[in-house]
């Protein structure tokens, strides 16, 4: 009997779930608010309920509603072997050391695998996005949003390391005495080129009177500044705003170039909200790799925008449900 | 019939060769000057002659003198698939695009494999050094000397990438607008913490009168300053010289920490002449990894000095003769 796979993308504010068949075709999809303040037990119970409801709906339509497995991407550090959450910076502290895989598995009667959310998104790109039909691809995935996460796949295999923590590409030190990062370090890529870092420079330029178009676009309200608004302002003529975006793109390019020296990947994939900068970002990253990697030709390295976009995490969770990684 | 393996470590000034049995036990070893000005044909002929002489000597002692294969480490970029040299910065330009593997293979009648010298040394550490008896080890090898080379092995497998160029750990950008590197980039680890970069700071301190012990040790002669002399001066009381060494060690630590965020390896192995700084280097690198990798615990990452030292390249060449990599 053919079976079904469930994918869960647990976020700080919302939870996405999907059911798919064994080929990864999505049959059902839902989003619910996380309400993490309820505590892990209540949230996990709601996730299990949602999957069961999705299964029941499918059962009405077809005969195959057997759940083969569940994959869940979690925002932070998890112990992939035990399926336990370790440190989830965007969820309350009672989420530390929660045996989430065992809890869900008991409620759903099928195996559950846990993985960091950005590694899960990397797996999504690997199996269902740019890596599809390239079984031996080596890729580096940058997810650039409020934070900068990442993941690497080597010869078609997601690299986990002993804790599922390898691939933290946003926490390379690029400026030894740079601004403080959320991880405690200084000068990480995340501290230099995350969404908030980019917006901060937009704020400065606007408040200094150096970004008149941006001022117009957001009616002078800092809270409305986003990288996307900044791109619109740049396109409308704010040259200093364009320069600010390019400077952020250069930092991302340097981080990518460093990964290229280490792994010489086939693909650098850019995802997360900041990837909406589109060609400004990808072409700058391409240039920086070409200019900074001097030891070997990098013509073979493709720099592309995530193919799955916001669905990368959910599709990766389905891939995780399908088979173990690492 | 048991056979023999030949390893060659081709350097800018000297060539080391060794014969080993199939277990990697070295039976013969030689060093000859490179005299690269003679051109590739003459040099390759001398290498073949030397191996044949070693084989003849062995034949006198035992019945097994059948050559199974040859591995050669080469200082620069090689095309590992075709066994052709590409760009060898320390050898004259006629070494570009030399089919060295085919030439040697014809002369010796057995398969010859080519690989970059530091990747070859990494392979040596992997198969015969710290990686011995750890079949799934992930390690990052830094060779810090006149240049800074590197190599990575992932789950027991040397990472080559499409050109055998992955693992260039010395060419991560650590200071975006830093000093110019030999590779054309700015602010590479190599530009900040190679032997010459360290010595340059020794020169500055001595000439400024800030390193009296160093001045004494090298009789005021800049040409005699080495990292090892600087360590002796530091131990004799030159605190600013110690600080200079520590600053270089911190850069190496930052490069290592970056690789840890990407790969979460089991081992960081430090080799090359600068590794003679010993505990000052390894303990600083350890501290920097612990302090800068904030996203996950790094207790499992061991930082060690190369076990094979100067023999790493030759032992890696023997390992390369034994079986293909990547």
Strand order within the widest sheet of chain A? 3-2-1-4-7
Shape of chain A: globular
Number of domains of chain A: 2
CATH superfamily of the largest domain in chain A: ATPase, nucleotide binding domain
Percentage beta strand of chain A: 15-25%
Give the CATH level 1 class of the largest domain in chain A.
Alpha Beta
Tell me which protein chains meet in the greatest interface and how many residues each side has.
A-B, 43 and 43 residues
Query: CATH topology of the largest domain in chain A, which one?
Result: Nucleotidyltransferase, domain 5
Number of helices of chain A: 10
Oligomer: homodimer
Percent of residues in helices of chain A: 25-40%
Q: Could you list the spans of chain A in which at least 5 consecutive residues all have pLDDT below 50? A: none
């Amino acid at each position: 009997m053919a079976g079904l796979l469930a994918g869960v993308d647990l976020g700080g504010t919302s939870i996405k779930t999907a059911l798919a068949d064994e080929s990864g075709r999505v049959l059902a999809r839902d989003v619910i608010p996380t309400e993490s303040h309820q505590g892990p037990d209540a949230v996990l119970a709601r996730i299990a309920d949602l999957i069961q409801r999705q299964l029941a709906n499918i059962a009405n339509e077809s005969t195959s509603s057997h759940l083969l497995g569940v994959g869940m991407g979690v925002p932070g550090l998890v112990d992939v072997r035990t399926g336990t959450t370790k440190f989830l910076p965007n969820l309350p502290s009672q989420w530390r050391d929660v045996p989430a895989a065992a809890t869900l598995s008991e409620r759903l009667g099928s195996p559950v695998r846990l993985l960091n959310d950005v590694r899960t998104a990397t797996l999504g790109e690997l199996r269902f996005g740019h890596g599809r039909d390239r079984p031996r691809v080596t890729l580096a995935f940058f997810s650039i949003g409020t934070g900068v996460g990442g993941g690497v796949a080597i010869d078609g295999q997601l690299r986990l390391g002993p804790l599922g923590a390898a691939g933290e590409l946003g926490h390379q030190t690029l400026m030894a005495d740079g601004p403080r990062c959320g991880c405690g370090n200084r000068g990480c890529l995340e501290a230099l080129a995350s969404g908030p870092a980019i917006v901060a420079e937009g704020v400065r330029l606007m408040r200094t009177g150096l970004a008149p178009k941006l001022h117009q676009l957001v009616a002078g309200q800092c809270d409305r500044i986003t990288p996307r608004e900044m791109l619109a302002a740049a396109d409308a003529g704010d040259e200093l705003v364009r320069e600010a975006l390019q400077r952020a793109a250069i930092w991302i390019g340097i981080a990518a170039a460093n990964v290229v020296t280490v792994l010489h990947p086939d693909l650098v994939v850019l995802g997360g909200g900041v990837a909406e900068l589109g060609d400004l970002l990808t072409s700058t990253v391409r240039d920086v790799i070409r200019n900074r990697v001097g030891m070997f030709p990098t013509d073979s390295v493709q720099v592309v925008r995530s193919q799955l976009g916001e669905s990368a995490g959910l599709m990766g969770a389905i891939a995780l449900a399908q088979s173990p990684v690492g």
